[in-house]
Amino acid sequence: MSFNTFGKFFRFTTWGESHGPAIGCVVDGCPPNIKLNIRDIQLELNKRKPGQSKFTTQRKEDDKVEILSGTFEGKTTGTPISMIIFNKDMRSRDYKNIKDKFRPGHADYTYFKKYGIRDYRGGGRQSARETASRVAAGAIAKQVLQNIIGKKYSVIGAVTQLGILGCDTEKWNDSFITKNHLFCPDKTVLKLWEKYLLGIRKAGSSCGAIIEVRARGVPVGLGAPIYSKLDMDLASAMMSINAVKGVNIGSGMNSAQLSGEQNSDEMSQAGKKTKFKSNNAGGILGGISSGQEIIVSFAVKPTSSILSQRKTINKFGKNTSISVTGRHDPCVGIRAVPIGEAMMHCVILDHYLMNKAQCGN
Amino acid sequence: MSFNTFGKFFRFTTWGESHGPAIGCVVDGCPPNIKLNIRDIQLELNKRKPGQSKFTTQRKEDDKVEILSGTFEGKTTGTPISMIIFNKDMRSRDYKNIKDKFRPGHADYTYFKKYGIRDYRGGGRQSARETASRVAAGAIAKQVLQNIIGKKYSVIGAVTQLGILGCDTEKWNDSFITKNHLFCPDKTVLKLWEKYLLGIRKAGSSCGAIIEVRARGVPVGLGAPIYSKLDMDLASAMMSINAVKGVNIGSGMNSAQLSGEQNSDEMSQAGKKTKFKSNNAGGILGGISSGQEIIVSFAVKPTSSILSQRKTINKFGKNTSISVTGRHDPCVGIRAVPIGEAMMHCVILDHYLMNKAQCGN
Amino acid sequence: MSFNTFGKFFRFTTWGESHGPAIGCVVDGCPPNIKLNIRDIQLELNKRKPGQSKFTTQRKEDDKVEILSGTFEGKTTGTPISMIIFNKDMRSRDYKNIKDKFRPGHADYTYFKKYGIRDYRGGGRQSARETASRVAAGAIAKQVLQNIIGKKYSVIGAVTQLGILGCDTEKWNDSFITKNHLFCPDKTVLKLWEKYLLGIRKAGSSCGAIIEVRARGVPVGLGAPIYSKLDMDLASAMMSINAVKGVNIGSGMNSAQLSGEQNSDEMSQAGKKTKFKSNNAGGILGGISSGQEIIVSFAVKPTSSILSQRKTINKFGKNTSISVTGRHDPCVGIRAVPIGEAMMHCVILDHYLMNKAQCGN
Amino acid sequence: MSFNTFGKFFRFTTWGESHGPAIGCVVDGCPPNIKLNIRDIQLELNKRKPGQSKFTTQRKEDDKVEILSGTFEGKTTGTPISMIIFNKDMRSRDYKNIKDKFRPGHADYTYFKKYGIRDYRGGGRQSARETASRVAAGAIAKQVLQNIIGKKYSVIGAVTQLGILGCDTEKWNDSFITKNHLFCPDKTVLKLWEKYLLGIRKAGSSCGAIIEVRARGVPVGLGAPIYSKLDMDLASAMMSINAVKGVNIGSGMNSAQLSGEQNSDEMSQAGKKTKFKSNNAGGILGGISSGQEIIVSFAVKPTSSILSQRKTINKFGKNTSISVTGRHDPCVGIRAVPIGEAMMHCVILDHYLMNKAQCGN
């Protein structure tokens, strides 16, 4: 049972509601004697936090993380690492308007039906605010992996589709991604995307997005078939992110349309190096990493809170309607990039440790 | 750690290789006092077994299941249910040709790299033969759920895309699905599909497929946020099936292209009944079932074993090539339908029991 | 893997070192809609905290608990409950004297050998300070169980042996236990015990203790054979407490000396009530609760930190010696009473929820 | 949730009832490339099987184990190892006499109350027959550990108390243990024990026993504090064995009576070797192995099925009585020796693998 815990070996447990005093997580199973740089954890959190550009929500979140345990003289000790982020922007706003209504596309209805009670302030536990905790956990996993595997290990994510607009992933450019607010990997489309998104914002509407995350330098052999396959755990990880509705590994859903000749990645050997002619498999065969780049993409549905009036019901079973007033986020998918990266780090470290136990490698 | 176990509460552990003496599974956590009909378990297995039409592999597998424990006088006792299927068609074929080669698109390479040893006969543990065990487990889950929830609970899967050919899911017809060998839900496309598939078969090629599985009568409130969300576990379940590369919940990857107005499913109340105007969410909001139909689809890549020569390497690190001779399976996706149904049953029962513990409902 | 998590359904994860900024725990799987009284949680913590009498250590710990998440308007919401206790008495004492030495009987040596690093201040993670977190978790479990089962459910622990001095458990008196600082259940021995303990304290020595914990009002049917037996989980729970070296269920180790005639508890029926003639089984048969009082006892070894000089080695592999100066705790077992009670609550609630899922009862 | 699974990394799942067609287990997480000697597995099973001397039950069980999966060319492959033991001696005896009665001291009552149904034939799932499966799992763990650690690793168990008769554990003699049917370690008491046990047998009575299991060559550093401590898992393991009511680590319950001076094991260094002056800790400090001999003992209650008439009730809530007729087992504790050894192997391997993942050692 792991209601609020992710991972088997490198595990993190998150807690907290968007409008409680704090949120946080406990990381368990982190290897000892790893130098932790808290500034680098904070940098990952900064990538996720809202209010940074005109393209995402203007809600200010400080997202300052503190470590409460598990380190000694700057190094991990093998004991649980507790991190806390105090909630700052939880002004005592008036929730009278929405406290009894179920916002369509949100989990208001299902939480209420399941638990019979819910903290409606800002979505409570359903809020994407929870993802800050996992970004912190992922930042630790990243440092551990870079310590173990070295700098050849890296993970980078990007938005590869913004609403109805795609991009050319052949033009993927790492450094360009880090320099634009939309995590767009393709220089040639950015301007168009920006214009499109501002239009959506102005209209009070929203759009979805597809995020692609790539991991490089992952050793061959990670993944425990049959029911802890690396792709299972990655699919599970990405699907756990708020508003995600689909996950692809490599060619993903598109592989249905390929022929056998097109799909299976031919192999060849050049000296000590095994090469693959293509990477439809997304770096995973039979649930085990092949040493190729791991490629996962996932779809984030459009923000459900929009300005137009939507029909819904309230908790007394009456028909009503609802609309968002004031600031809104035209595309929640954008901020999902650092979250996807964090989940990738966590899954890979989890499997790295698992494989160590299973095969001694 | 659950290398070969699936589920948290209703759990099954599978074992066995395609060319060992037997395969099987142990189902743990099954509620007591449920009447089990072994004939119905066998019927589900029959749906999966190969050799039934000219469209799938001709390999004959008898797939006769036996129950070794966990029942008494026809009823479950709450103790583990062990099921066994003896392997019959494991003729001592000559594997000399492929024993040292890594078939592209298969897990030969990654298994060998991970474990340093592998049973190459028929794919060993990687073989899709393992899925027979989960179909048996799913058949038990189905009987339990029908016993608890009643006949309004049902799961049905279909092939909604065969290679490059789609179908109209608006024309989905349950009874038609059960009457054709391709699990095609749309009467108007079947002939075309058959012709297309026979062409692929004749050419020694293969194609992928998309499978859609629908569950009806699932109560509202199943799913344990945040890290045992119902959609996480469904994504994980489907991704565990051999050759699956992508998973969608409801509108899935396509939801990236929708606007907020199109996507979020408006709600209304009619008497005691809550209604949704649409089902882009696929019956899951915030990881919890909404009471709507649960809709999951997944892509199965084209069969990797094809007749044309493919470049690869062998375990000594030498370049070589490989091709399948004799019978082959033009679309492994077709037989994934009963497997997807089985996994759906298992996940739903798992969450049903979990919810019982968590919320007492 | 549950390095720092206890429980399967009602789970708590503890974190923190004795001399870090705080300790705490995250409780997951708590049923929703339960009224939580934070004052009652604090009362349980107060029972454990040191510095309350001349019989235990004089170290002052404030142990003030705060709830950071998981409740709304005074009720649980089904989301994780994060609790934090800030460390107050962590004066920057000089640890130079002991930082490189391995105290005999403590986990200094094994932690260092395992992790290659350790927080030596006050024992770090090994410190019994961690147990405050579980007392908090247990206090929640208690409130949940009293809410579900009612007031007939109760747990009470006592010291039944103090060093070489026993007591007559036939004279067990609940209200007397709550009124003396040694949790002694037998009025006739208290004075002797006090004198004995003061003598040990004055001599700078220490003694062990046996704690017995009794749970009443536990429903029949809790316990999941074969590998989540109620007695397994209770043994595991008690053994997890610092310095515990043995656990008995009912007659425990003593049952080896009984004859079959003496041991098995005869049954009879009086109206609707099933009666047992005796309770050698300690309320558990085949790993399942029988409805009788659950009786668990455990031995706590004598405090390892004593005033006499002890031979040991340091982390450089050199022979040396060590002794405690200043205040010491003559019997750590006494403060184990509320910890044992807390673990009992947690295990019973865990199994209560598990049984709900497994058998619907 | 692990109802019928033991272990976290090296895991085994057992299934089967005493009078079903077979029993068995699935071992998951076994490292690959380990040579498995099935004859050695059988030898361990032979130590447990009944009917071998006049001191235990005369019920004949063949206990012939077969491996159905997970090995290839004599070596483990890292995939699940399924083992099966067909039940041979399940003559269709008449159970009419006991089918509705709850035998005192047995789990008949609690199973029925929990599940509402039970297989009463020979105790069904409650039967100690299940332990054959774990002896098989333990035999695999033993071979793996001897392969990894080498021959210096060994586990040996003995009966150290038989009913009211103790022995001198200072006289513990490994080779003597293997040569007598009572697993008695002390040559000087065997004759007395035999006479005593024959007397009990003749009287139709029974007695309990204490078993002590010692593991040598266990590396320092195994055990994951705080909630997967090595002693927690050992206590849990031993408590899972049928009829066990108490578990000690090292001095165990007796440590309550020691003084701090007597109890804590002083350390010294001699060259590269760390030495302990005594072993009250039983080789475990803070839940982590210290490199000393691991010493666990546990009490087995007297056989509940005896020849004298016992009062009880039946499933209809009526008072009745019961007695065993024909052959009976005067001391079930004796056959617990190989079971305790098996559990020791399993726990140590589990923690060995865990530590590999956690600390890379």
- Cα distance spanning the termini of chain A: 28 Å
Please tell me how large the radius of gyration of chain A is.
21 Å
- The name of the CATH topology of chain A is Chorismate synthase, AroC fold
Order of helices and strands of chain A: EEEHEEEEHHEHHEHEHEEEEEEEH
In total, the number of strands of chain A is 17
Largest interface: A-B, 113 and 113 residues
Helix coverage percent of residues of chain A? 25-40%
Oligomer class: homotetramer
The outline of chain A comes out as globular
Major sheet attributes of chain A: 5 strands, antiparallel
Q: What count of helical segments of chain A does DSSP give? A: 8
Poorly predicted sequence stretches spanning 5 or more consecutive residues of chain A: none
In CATH terms, the superfamily of chain A is Chorismate synthase AroC
Question: What is the average of the pLDDT values of chain A?
Answer: 94
CATH C-level class of chain A = Alpha Beta
Instruction: Identify the CATH architecture of chain A.
Output: 4-Layer Sandwich
Structural class of chain A: alpha+beta
